[in-house]
Model the fold of this input.
Amino acid sequence: MNSSKSNHSVWSRRGILRATAAAAVTVAASALLRPGWLHAAPRPPKPIGGFDAKAWIAQWKKYILDAQAHDRYCDKETGEELGWLVSPYLYGFYYGFMATQQPKWIDLMVDWSDAWTRRGQKEPDGYLGWPKADGASTEVVPHLLTDNILGEAMALRPAVLMAAEVLNSPSLKSKYGAKFKQYLDLSEQVFNKWDARYTWREIKAGGVWVVPEFGLSANGGKWDEGFANRKTSGFSLPDNKQNLLAQWLMAMADVTGKSIYRKRATQWWQVMKSRMRLREGKYYDWDYWCPAGPWDYKSNNEPRHWVGVHPNGGYYDIDLEGIVNAYDHKIVFEKTEIDRLIATNRDFMWNQQIQGAKFKRMDGGEPDKRWKDSPGVLWHALIPYDDKLRQIFEANHEPASWGGLAGTPWYVALAAGKLAPPKPVAG
Done:
């Protein structure tokens, strides 16, 4: 493909599901819904067959260089699109460096990270934001001019991971150290911003993040009237977004060594585990969204959002990434849960065909015509833990694709044993 525009110019914070239906759907296409690739696994997976790392990297390199020059989402996107459109490139640059050790990928990360971060504007509480009209990104919350915690966290996590590489390498630190210390500091400021806005809520099962129900006035000079109720209003984010935020927090915990980030991630994963239902003693399913507190109910006590298994399976691929991240950090989830999740994806959902693999809904429900080609997807986070899922991935992955932006160098680096857990940085 000569241009990436046709694949992802349609993306928006609400267009994610629509894009999957419009795209050519393969196993690899599920990566359209999961721009936050896992960092590492306890052991590098052994390639199964049909995997040529040099060929994959060559195809990927041409694709990502052409696409990033064409798209330049970093120059224009704000709000949640910082996550869905900017972070896939940032992960591509990060994993590109991990797979090749070539500094050009660090240079590209700096280019893109500077381009989006320097466009931040100071908001009434003194914190930087990247506000957008309808930035709350959910129809449940009234349309607001506001920034978005998910977009910011997703765009910052790759820079946090790269900071561990840069700041722990004398040669890289001399050239890039100041810049990545800046990104790390910004990530901490973003956490402090959303914490100060009361968007974190502790509940009986653990803790959740909520979408605030306030925004900026038309000229951006002050908060609207919803700001006064910020401690009790809001709308709990769905599971997939909670898992993406937890992964950002774990990256911050790994790199800074600060316990608050690990604590918050742990509290969410406790909630995540509590929502998982065991079927037939060996398979799991869970709902896309659940009410977490009084803010999630209408005045008549009905939930503010529908509750059930989402008919687009891509969301659950993101959930699995969070669950496996927790497992790798020895948090909340144990091998028993991982084995059951493997069984769910491999034994229940998969059609038992390597080439042209397809997956049904994890609850066995009928496909929704809007997403008839993606009721279920390969759960990529389980690839390092199961030979059959890895075989499916290698047989179906397209190195030069939107999903391959991060997925290709991630797998090459993982298979080569180059993804050690990030080390804390000094100072």
